[in-house]
Write a structure and sequence with these properties.
GO terms for molecular function: coreceptor activity; MHC class I protein binding. It holds the Pfam family V-set. It is a single-pass type I membrane protein. The chain has two domains: 111 residues, Immunoglobulin-like, CATH 2.60.40; 38 residues. The longest helix has 38 residues. It is α+β, with helices and mostly antiparallel strands. It starts with a helix and ends with a helix. It contains three helices and eleven strands. Strands 2, 4, 5, 6, 9, 10 and 11 form a seven-stranded mixed beta sheet that branches. Helices cover 26% and strands 35% of the residues. Strand 4 and strand 5 form a beta hairpin.
């Protein structure tokens, strides 16, 4: 994981977009390579899918049932940067996308880009502006201010900390699954 990140950088980390839009994921390489592979991990189907390989001559090889109209790889800056363009987005495109290079009969994966496609994006809540009061704000000594029950009271931070902990614990099985998948891919390639 860490070693791969020194050789290839993938951005952005997350993309949230609407159905029928298009998007782009960038992969920058710091190592000699024969081309870039793109994969998608489907969280829903628990499935790792090969999308496309683009060699340094710009020739693309697509995976089974992968639409050339939907996925296009563009090379820039003399083979050091590749971008995956995905068009006609649909919720079935949700997943984590990985750029990858082959090195010493193993695949080095980028950090991944989580793509979420929704029919409608959540809109920010409208805030109503309250008129500024011209009354003087009373000065509160530091000791009194610290003793007031404010936003950092245990009633707020204990459930918040518990929620964060549960979220992190929920990520452990996914991280383990990805590690096993990555190892299985490595073994499969290594055997060939």
């Amino acid at each position: 994981g860490f070693y791969a990140n020194l050789l290839l950088t993938q951005t952005p980390e997350h993309i949230l977009t609407q159905t029928n839009n298009k998007t782009e994921i960038l992969c920058e390489l710091k190592k000699e390579h024969t081309g870039v592979y793109w994969y998608r991990w489907s969280h829903e189907r628990q499935h790792f899918e090969f999308l496309v390989f683009s060699n340094t001559l710009g020739k693309a090889t697509y995976g089974t049932n992968v639409s050339q109209d939907k996925f296009r790889v563009q090379e820039a800056r003399s083979h050091s940067s590749y971008s995956l363009h995905i068009s006609h987005l649909h919720p079935s495109d949700n997943g984590t996308y990985y750029c990858s290079i082959s090195q010493s009969s193993q695949l080095l994966l980028g950090s991944g880009t989580r793509l979420s496609v929704a029919d409608a994006l959540p809109l920010p809540l409208k805030t109503t502006q309250t008129p500024v009061s011209k009354k003087a704000v009373p000065w509160i000594p530091k000791s009194k201010a610290a003793s007031k029950k404010g936003p950092c009271s245990p009633l707020v931070w204990i459930p918040l900390a518990t929620g964060v902990l549960l979220l992190l614990l929920g990520l452990v099985p996914t991280a383990h699954r990805l590690y096993r998948l990555r190892r299985r891919l490595w073994l499969r390639i290594h055997r060939q």
